[in-house]
Amino acid sequence: MIFISRHLSDSSPLRAWVASQGDTIDDRSLLTFAPVAFTPPGDAHWWFFYSPRAVQYAGAIPPTVRTAAIGGTTAASLYRHAGRVDFCGTGEPRAVAEEFLAVAEGQRVFFPRARQSRRSVQMLLADRVTVLDAICYDNQPVPPTAAIVADTYIFTSPLNVAAYLDHWELPAGARVMALGPSTGSELVRRGVPCSWPVLPTDEELVKMLRHVV
């Protein structure tokens, strides 16, 4: 059995691959989400998004601003929402910050974010851009009431890692994967060996899983 800490759509390549292997998947977030009222700035050059959830709760994006996403999954959500993505990073905060500076240095960048966000990119950019910051949604951990029994655990955010590992241990020999370097770094910090795909997508997770089946 595979556990992943987010809900998968019916058309998810990961869901289809697991079914083709005769395996089962437990796909559920260990977080709750709620919108937070905020007033967006009127003078930003860029809106930068850390997650698809931020895109969901940020509301209408002014047509005059440029849009940026930390990685591919967020960029896909941003494109569906706004019809454009002017910058897409790799998902690794330090590399994203360096690449983003090439197009945004000295400009005003708005970061609509989660209350629990680590603000990784904006903290790296603080002295090179004007950071405009607002919480647009609340995200709180909801630990499972019992340990999740699986052969493979896929964590999709550092907060999901905390929601589980602050309360339950992983079984010996379990395979652990992360969806992106920030989540991977949190697992490593907790002493949990893990791996993560080059891109934070279901397709890339499937490629990795094929090599270990």
From TrEMBL:
Gene3D superfamilies: 3.40.50.10090. InterPro entries: 4pyrrol_syn_uPrphyn_synt_sf, 4pyrrol_synth_uPrphyn_synth. Pfam families: HEM4. Residues 43-206 form the Tetrapyrrole biosynthesis uroporphyrinogen III synthase domain. It comes from the Bacteria. This is Tetrapyrrole biosynthesis uroporphyrinogen III synthase domain-containing protein. It comes from Neolewinella maritima.
